[in-house]
């Protein structure tokens, strides 16, 4: 399973996901870095089967309207420290990975996971 971490999320999530045996890149790893357009991220996601990890509601709209990106992990925690986000990821990543076997859109909140149909 491969994850593409969007610009507004910390690059440290890449290392954290890799430590659990998952593939991950950050938009900073792409040729245009954090200036990579949503359209380019969606195209890469579909072509390379990346799950886009984002806080950006624009990806929710494109997913619901056009099924782009390939799969979506929305972080809807509001303002949260990077350390708290990393703790939340550690606590939920296995359930998220299992959930993507069935669902294409998962949302992480501070206290719950939402599996969208």
Plain-language structure description:
This protein has one domain: 3-Layer(aba) Sandwich (Rossmann fold). The protein has 117 residues and is of the alpha/beta class. It is globular and about 30 Å long. The chain has a six-stranded mixed β-sheet, sandwiched between helices. The chain is 40% helix and 22% strand. α1 crosses α4. The mean pLDDT is 96.
Core attributes:
Rossmann fold; globular; alpha/beta; 6-stranded mixed beta sheet; 117 residues
Order of secondary-structure elements = EHEHEHEHEE
Give the C-level CATH assignment.
Alpha Beta
Number of strands: 6
Determine the mean pLDDT. 96
β-strand amount:
15-25%
Short description:
The chain is 40% helix and 22% strand.
Task: Show the helix and strand layout.
Layout: E1 2-5, H1 12-19, E2 23-26, H2 38-48, E3 50-54, H3 57-66, E4 71-75, H4 82-99, E5 105-108, E6 113-116
Parallel strand pairs: 1-2, 1-3, 3-4, 4-5
Antiparallel strand pairs: 5-6
């Amino acid at each position: 399973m491969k994850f593409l971490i969007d610009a507004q999320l910390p690059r440290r999530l890449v290392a954290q996901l890799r430590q659990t045996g998952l593939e991950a890149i950050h938009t900073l790893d792409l040729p245009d870095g954090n200036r990579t357009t949503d359209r380019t991220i969606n195209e890469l996601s579909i072509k390379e089967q990346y799950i886009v990890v984002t806080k950006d509601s624009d990806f929710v709209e494109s997913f619901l309207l056009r099924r782009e990106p390939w799969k979506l992990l929305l972080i809807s925690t509001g303002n949260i420290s990077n350390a708290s986000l990393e703790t939340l990821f550690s606590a939920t990543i296995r359930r998220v990975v299992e959930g993507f076997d069935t669902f294409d859109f998962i949302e992480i909140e501070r206290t719950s996971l939402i599996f969208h149909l």
